[in-house]
Automatic annotation (TrEMBL), chain A:
InterPro entries to which the protein is assigned, alphabetical: Gln_synt_N (IPR008147), Gln_synth_cat_dom (IPR008146), Gln_synth_gly_rich_site (IPR027303), Gln_synth_N_conserv_site (IPR027302), Glutamine_Synthetase (IPR050292)
Keywords attached to this entry: ATP-binding, Ligase, Nucleotide-binding
Name of this protein: glutamine synthetase
Enzyme Commission identifier(s): 6.3.1.2
Lineage: Eukaryota, Viridiplantae, Streptophyta, Embryophyta, Tracheophyta
Organism: Zingiber officinale
Automatic annotation (TrEMBL), chain B:
Protein name: glutamine synthetase
Pfam entry (one): Gln-synt_C
Domain GS beta-grasp: 19-99
Domain GS catalytic: 106-356
The organism of origin for this protein: Zingiber officinale
Amino acid sequence: MASLTDLINLDLSDTTEKIIAEYIWIGGSGLDIRSKGRTLPGPVTNPSKLPKWNYDGSSTGQAPGDDSEVILYPQAIFKDPFRRGNNILVICDCYTPAGEPIPTNKRYNAAKIFSHPDVVAEEPWYGIEQEYTLLQKDVKWPLGWPIGGFPGPQGPYYCAAGADKSFGRDIVDAHYKACLYAGINISGINGEVMPGQWEFQVGPTVGISSGDQVWAARYILERITEIAGVVLSFDPKPIQGDWNGAGAHTNYSTKSMRSDGGYDVIKSAIEKLGKRHKEHIAAYGEGNERRLTGRHETADINTFLWGVANRGASIRVGRETEKDGKGYFEDRRPASNMDPYVVTSMIAETTILRKP
Amino acid sequence: MALLTDLINLNLSDTTEQIIAEYIWIGGSGLDIRSKARTLPGPVTDPSKLPKWNYDGSSTGQAPGDDSEVILYPQAIFKDPFRRGNNILVICDCYTPAGVPIPTNKRYNAAKVFSHPDVAVEEPWYGIEQEYTLLQKDVKWPLGWPVGGFPGPQGPYYCSVGADKSFGRDIVDAHYKACLYAGIQISGINGEVMPGQWEFQVGPAVGISSGDQVWAARYILERITEIAGVVVSFDPKPIQGDWNGAGAHTNYSTKSMRNDGGYEVIKAAIEKLGKKHKEHIAAYGEGNERRLTGRHETADINTFLWGVANRGASIRVGRETEQNGKGYFEDRRPASNMDPYVVTSMIAETTILWKP
């Protein structure tokens, strides 16, 4: 019989101009990613040229059944690594028919902050280190772990190679290339301290684009784990006990920080963040208190601490930045399940728009 | 040894002008799709240039054994996504040797309705949302469901991503591209509320072409599930209990509805449909009473209700249509196992030809 793969890999550009656009949005939990596909008459590269669409919000906890339409506004386009050709992935955000952002739409507010002239002038750059855990399907136990038991203690697994130390590399490598293909600014990957846990980094990206790219990368990752028959988890502390949690460390700089004398700008920015520690923590991801314990390379959730090269701090400044007198810093507090629109815009708002 | 795949994928255009035409028809149950193939001397793109053919109707419950020939009249051609090259799929309808449509031939009457001058001038457009359920072979339990048990309740599955939420995407994606290749107006796909259930949309297509394209798309889907070793079901309520059914929502508009002032024409059409609710329901698919309960985004089978953006109604008018004062409406009553020739022509007949 003809194979499914032949059909999935059909290159339609020989037979039609039509393309398939996969519209992607965030569902009612703020972390569930949803998508559906539609046919368009020809290739599109500019999101403003894509039609708005709508979906059944009553099926995602975002609208009542008797008034169920939620409108999708296309915001960013990426090449589709699964369908290839001229087919695309479209990151969208969600509005009522009257044009109001729905409560789970965190992009809208972030876009407002990033278009504030003071923020625009500072060209905020973000590098997000997205950690995640791979779980075996059905049992939801980490990939590579014996069912009903545990692997040997942490030590051998960080950046490891070998069948007894590294679990799921095919997913990670497929994801890396798929994201590069898609046009996402994926800057690297590594195996993490807990076996079955991995990290990819997206950046440096400017402003609102950081959130768009991280969500697109998360979507591509979940499509790939779906193919691999493995379950993806963004839980910040998937396994209790002497096992690392999963974070989304957010590296950040502004034009002033990157210019000569930037180190002082960095220090005053960190001071402003210290004054709003509680507010930031509240927005940095559900369940983070299980992860930010002061152990396992974190600072305690109630403590605001910064230091050069200190992985036990809330904020870490790199040695190179200290030496050069300019550069960037790393907010280590966000959990792996944080919303990048919220975190990136909040850091910009606190450090640029708020007066001390 | 040569692989089967090498042989299946042979490109014959190097060696011969001959093509293979797969003649497709609907069998005695009104839902079983049958097909067989013949060689033709060269490429054909016009159905009227294809020869009539015949088959053994006594093997499909459509003729007695002592007078078993049923004649196939070719009606629509699509490119064959399985054999590719110049090979074709041919949608046919069925006649006695005397030239009379057999009882299961619903296309004949639909074609008469669509060629009525009052209908032709209104250029009726149809968009059909075909839902279907994928079942594991042999056990006939939905794909992705644990055998002997149930998955977690509905909520996470609609438009979802991930190995624990989305089951059978390779079938759906292969079908999308295969239909585009074939020349079917497939306008989109999405994962449905019940896990293992999916939907594709065909349209907008004019008049009789809608039925031809939906049947061709159903045939291609069943060929693809055959390859995947999975069973496709068009049952309108495959699993009893708190699980959505499967429908074939039919979106409809006429020229008058699409023009300025169309909203009044839409309301008048809906009123006529309301007066013939029982007749339509009787023709909208077997077993629909198990699905149209008033729960799970349906209106009760005995109730005729219409509303804007209301997914619990018999007929839903979109917000955009309401806002623009023109557009189309969605008849949500047809079951997934409906015959598109019957449903499309009946809607045209009631709304355009019938004077109450």
